[in-house]
Amino acid sequence: MKILVVGSGGREHALAWKLLQSSEVERVFCVPGNGGTATLNRCENISLAVDDFALISNFALKEEINLVVVGPEVPLAQGITDYLQSQGLKVFGPNKAGAQIEASKVWAKTLMQEAKIPIANSAVFNRAAPAKSYIKDHELPIVIKADGLAAGKGVTVATTRNQAVEAVEAIFRGQFGGAGEFVIVEECLIGQEVSVLALTDGLTIRPLLPAQDHKRIGEGDTGENTGGMGAYAPAPIATVNLMERVQKQVLDRTINALRARNIDYRGVLYAGLMINPSGEFKVLEFNCRFGDPETQVILPLLETPLEELMLACVEQRLEQMPPIEWKQGACATVVAASGGYPGVYETGKVITGIAQAEAAGATVFHAGTILNQQLITDGGRVLNVTGIGENFEQALGLAYAGIEQINFEGMYYRRDIGYQVKG
C-alpha cells in the first residue's frame, strides 16, 4: 500500500519511519516532510503546503494513495479530513468537528464537564477586566490558557498575580492570533504530567503506552513552556490500575460524549493528565493528533504494524483487532533545539554528527531540518535523538551518547530528560 503523511516535524518522521517497517507498505510520501524523511528509503518528500487541500487531494488521487495520515493539529482543525474524504480518500485523523477538542479549550472544557470527566476548576473570559478580577480572588500559582491553537505555547503557569495579569493581557493583545478570543483561568494542579495517546474508530478506543513529556525549556522544569524538550515511555507512574481508571473515566466517556454530539471521531485522542502524589488524576487538555515528542518514544516500542491499526480506525473495525503488541523495554528522546527557542531563534545552521550519533546507537528523528545539499536547521526544535533499550538507563544513555555527537551553531538541549526515572 501507499501512504501519504501530512506534516514536517519529528512526529511525521517517526510516523513515516514506523510505517515503512511494514512489509505491506510499498511507499510513503511526506507533505512537505523534512531533511530526515528526505533520506528514508522508499520515502519521498512532496513540496506542498499542509493547508493546500486541493493539491494534496489531486496528488493522492493521482498516486492512488491508500491512506492519508495527518500529523499536525492545524490542518485537522481547518477540515483537511472532511475535504479529503469528500474526494473518496481514506484519512486517519478526526474531522473538523472532532478537532475542536484541541482547537478550542473552551469547547473541550464544556464537553468534559458534560461527560463528568475529572478536570481542574476554571473560569472562561472574553474580556481582560473580569479575568484580572478573578485572578485577584484566587490562590497562586494559577494557570492562564489561550483558547485556541498556540503551537503548545499558549499556557502560562503564573506564580505571581502580575505574571498572571500580563499573560491575560498578552493573549487579548493577540499574542496567539485567533487563539486569543477567550481566556481560561484555571487552578494549578500539582503532580506529574502524563500523556495518554489512544487510537479510536469512534466506537472503540484503545490506549497506547503512556509517556511523559518535558515541556519547560530549562532543566529542573524551569522557564518557558515549549512544544516539548524530551520524553520517555512507558511512564511508570501510569500504573495498570491508573490506566484502567483512565479508560473508564476519560477515554470511554469522551468517545461517548462525542458520539452524543453526532461527531464521528476516527484517529488519535490524546489526553494530557496531571497525576497528584496520591495517584488521583485530572485531565489538563485534549489533543486531536499524535503528540510530539511522545510519538517518537511510543512508536519505537510498537510491535503491531501501525498501518493495520490506522486502517482499523478508518474502517471502524478496531474492536475486531487483537490486543496491541509492544516490545519490552523503554524508549527516551532528547530534543536538540535552536538557540533562543521558544523565543526568537535563527535557522540555516549546518548540522553535523548525525551519522556518528546513529553509529553510537541512537535513532535520530528530524523535526526542524531541510536537506539542501547540506542538512541545515529550519525550526525551533531541530532533532529528536532517541534511545531504545532494555530499561530507562540504557535508553537514556543511548540518547545522550547520540546527542553528544551532534552539533550546530547555538544548539541547546536539556541534560535532565528522564530525571523522574533515573536512579
TrEMBL record:
Protein's organism: Plectonema cf. radiosum LEGE 06105
Enzyme superclass (EC): ligase
Transmembrane segments: none
Entries under InterPro entries matching the protein: ATP-grasp, ATP_grasp_subdomain_1, PreATP-grasp_dom_sf, PRibGlycinamid_synth_ATP-grasp, PRibGlycinamide_synth, PRibGlycinamide_synth_C-dom, PRibGlycinamide_synth_C_sf, PRibGlycinamide_synth_CS
Recorded GO MF terms: ATP binding; metal ion binding; phosphoribosylamine-glycine ligase activity
Lineage: Bacteria, Bacillati, Cyanobacteriota, Cyanophyceae, Oscillatoriophycideae
Pathway of action: Purine metabolism; IMP biosynthesis via de novo pathway; N(1)-(5-phospho-D-ribosyl)glycinamide from 5-phospho-alpha-D-ribose 1-diphosphate: step 2/2
Keywords assigned: ATP-binding, Ligase, Manganese, Metal-binding, Nucleotide-binding, Purine biosynthesis
Reaction it catalyzes: 5-phospho-beta-D-ribosylamine + glycine + ATP = N(1)-(5-phospho-beta-D-ribosyl)glycinamide + ADP + phosphate + H(+)
GO biological process, one term: purine nucleobase biosynthetic process
Pfam families reported in the protein's UniProt record: GARS_A (PF01071), GARS_C (PF02843), GARS_N (PF02844)
Family annotation (SMART domains): GARS_A (SM01209), GARS_C (SM01210)
Residues in ATP-grasp domain copies: 109-315
EC number in record: 6.3.4.13
Protein name: Phosphoribosylamine--glycine ligase
Family to which the UniProt record says this protein belongs: Belongs to the GARS family.
Cofactor entry: Mn(2+); Mg(2+)
